[in-house]
């Protein structure tokens, strides 16, 4: 089973890691798909920066994860082809075709699994019918919003490491990301 875990990853956090660890129990590979054009209109750092953070994040967490992890740029490819917004259904459909497999699972956290939110997803009923869903519990309530706030408030590297991984902190510092003007 290949798990598909889409998120803004703005930035990736230990909350994302927790979801990955839960989903890894059912997958032999997980593709992390950073949003290129968020269907709900979230404001995000440029794609390239989030992609770089995610690459470092995977290097940091891979030793703890029981399956292979890979960053997948399918949304960026779809955006470059003129698709916008990009919906989960379209990503899953495209990956099913490109990977030539029907053994895909959509990994989601409790926010998106909430029926009120889930019903807002484009073709949510078709997603339910075609692919398995892996719904992760929120065991590590660490959100990207909270991490961005900590960075803006000039938290120490030590404090930031309670929210994300060393490679992500290093890139945030090197690029001066999420800081107040």
From TrEMBL:
Catalytic activity: nicotinate beta-D-ribonucleotide + ATP + H(+) = deamido-NAD(+) + diphosphate
Pathway: Cofactor biosynthesis; NAD(+) biosynthesis; deamido-NAD(+) from nicotinate D-ribonucleotide: step 1/1
Domain Cytidyltransferase-like: residue ranges: 4-149
InterPro entries tied to this protein: Cyt_trans-like, NadD/NMNAT, Rossmann-like_a/b/a_fold
Native species: Litoribrevibacter euphylliae
GO molecular function, one term: nucleotidyltransferase activity
Name of this protein: nicotinate-nucleotide adenylyltransferase
Family: Belongs to the NadD family.
